[in-house]
User: Fold these one by one.
Assistant:
Number 1:
Amino acid sequence: MDALIIQILNGLDKGSAYALIALGLTLIFGTLGVVNFAHGALFMLGSFCAVTISRLFQVSYVVVDETKTDFLGNPLKVKMPYVSDWFGPEVGAWIIDWSVPLSILFAIPIMVLIGVTIERGLIKHFYKRPHADQILVTFGLAIVLQEIVKYFFGANPIPMPAPDAFKGSLDFGALIGMQSSSIIYPYWRLIYFAFAGVLITSVFCFLQFTTFGMVVRAGMADRETVGLLGINIDKRFTIMFGIAAAVAGLAGVMYTPINSPNYHMGMDFLVLSFVVVVVGGMGSLPGAVLAGFLLGILESFASTTWASNMLPGINQIIIYLVAIIVLLTRPRGLMGRKGVMEE
């Protein structure tokens, strides 16, 4: 039972990233009809937002500390972060320690701006072009963004620690009434799963219960009719592109302590996320989330020792096998809508 629960937790952890990226992909496709192969790059840019903010918090100047001396007895020169100078040593140390969660506050406007810029500067010119053209141009954009990040941050992964309060592991077994120490699971992975749940719920509530969201859903169903009512639906769809970019960016920010940011991490998630979207059903937001968690759990179980011994390499292909089976039995995916990408 403990091994089963651990694999489910591992699956929910990875499935959270799949679901968040696939949710953003589906938002863009459902509103604009654009197949955005640059969406994985937005996930990567979000992670490097966290890297940048963390480095800015640690910008320092050199001061002489009279209380410390070197081996010759001379006062020691130490680096003083500006945040510690401005807010005091304790608050400054707290800001640096919590740089990853605090990066969310900066990543939201940055990623919205990046998303709106991409949509207005590039994507809008390909609305009426074939999906193949959209794929080529957005894939090219993803490569450009990847190389820009590589130029400024280098090719090596950049470790981003979680706050000290969440660096350890939780006795999850004792928490659910099992034997103590039977299930030990990292705090931050549980935090990431909870964060994904809050973010996904927020997006659905925004679309379901706000006037803006209701207009967007109406525009997704019948864009022309909404436009005839005098509503600038294009402007709202541009904002939705920015929101989708922010969702991908926030997923990247919070994933940095789990997977050290590197310039190709967006490509690592991109193909799998598109498989998630297809399995869930093109244009279906609930389908994207459901498929993300489902495939994450299946991949987790396929990575176990017994599964690898029975079918070597199954963890590398399980998602694609499931996609083949689902599409053979349900060509529109688990929750796909009729007429989406069927013309």
Number 2:
Amino acid sequence: MTSTAVLALYITICCVVFIISKIIISVLLYKRWARKRRFVEESLSGGKIVMFRSTITQSLSSKAFMKKTMKLTNKDIIGSGGYGTVYRLVIDESLTFAVKRLNKGHIERDRGFERELNTMGDIKHRNIVTLHGYYVAPQFNLLIYELMPNGSLDGFLHRKWSDEKPLDWQTRYKIALGSARGIAYLHHDCIPHIIHRDIKSSNILLDQNMEARVSDFGLATLMEPEQTHVSTIVAGTFGYLAPEYFDTGKATTKGDVYSFGVVLLELLTGKRPTDESFIEEGTKLVTWVKGVVEDKREENAIDRNLVLFPVDEVKKVFAVAEKCLEPDPSKRPDMAGVVKMLEEITPYKV
């Protein structure tokens, strides 16, 4: 066989292999598309979506919403935790949601969905994140929230974003007061009362105006007005839990007050309750700050990113945090009292 014939045979084989590989890839892509399409259709037909009526959702069709939802990928993830994964869902240029997905089959996740849905259904408050709807399907559940464009307080305090300016004092105070108002609404104005059980900086979200919104009610517990506590298994986040919770297993509003006190310390110091420096020294944020306050050195504990601040106001917020963190829960103020103390710190209305 001549070299020309060999070359021609080689080219022919390469062309055939190339065409076959293209056919195989096309078939696989089609099957994948068909599976995904079937999944969307099955989800739409086998599930139930409920959108609460509002000016934001009135022009949104449930079918269009679900088709957008089924196209979400890992690139759209904006948060995740033990009770679900949160995605950014862009409907159009003017409409965006945060969608929390909870896969079924895990008892605690199923209960978390029920708790969050029962808790959030009727809540309307400027300092509580708004639930716009939910979706129930055989494979998973979805909770549809308004999107908070500035993320969480945890993100601002602890992540080193080069394009983000550190929080100034006025903004920190505004976040502290807004968060307190949101929690006080849960404790005092909701019937039955709501114990959040997981107050922490990552569950305080920030809207476009840096207004605080309390979020994530997957551990929330309902408490009738005549009750003083609810007996539960210990749950929450290490570093934020009230000491008595471990001993009694009783969830109370005073436990949320303690957790909020830890958040106040985070706002003031810029340190996590489980900061590595505390672990190395065998202490914790609460203990460290208590020593600083006793020595009247509060200004030395302030976050280094906070350059300008009114010393008098800072000391007063430290004092509020100290009251929230009383080891004896009976000596802690309730959240209505915390709000009042914070409001009295500055003459400016927030």
